[in-house]
Design a protein that fits this description.
Distance between the termini: 8 Å
Structural class: mainly alpha
Largest sheet: none
Number of helices: 6
Strand content: under 5%
Number of strands: 0
Order of helices and strands: HHHHHH
Shape: extended
Amino acid sequence: MRNFRTNYFITGAILIILGVLTMRYPLEAIMSAGVIIGIGLLASGLNYFSAFYFFGLKRFILLGLLDFVIGVYMIIQPGITAFVIPFVVGAWLLTTGLSRVGLSLWLGGARIPGWWLMLINGIVLIGLAVLMCAAPLSAAFSVMMILAGVLTASGILSVLEGCVMCR
């Protein structure tokens, strides 16, 4: 049980440190995100290659190659990756908002109570998507600040979990 508690403390400390560093150095965090995603894509590409190698699944060669090439590009060009993040988040918000608007209108036609709440939610998401794409630098900083808060809070909660659950 002691090792379990230590694991919580170490995990919590790492998350708190990452959160504080992200708050203190948001531009560097944005640039690092591109490198980290690039490394993740390299690992993903290697997984696809191993699926081909071990199981003979030829369709995974293209996926592995695609992940590998994009991963290398993201590592070499982290600034472009950092610039694209707000647009990717904006596209996700836009598609989510549009689908909520469409579903809410269908629910309204079916006379489902509260359909208008989903409509408002969809409109807000579409508005946020427009803001993300209209001011990508501000949006990227906002995403990093939210990430910093989440990391810090998760780290603090992890330490508290270790204190409370591992007595």
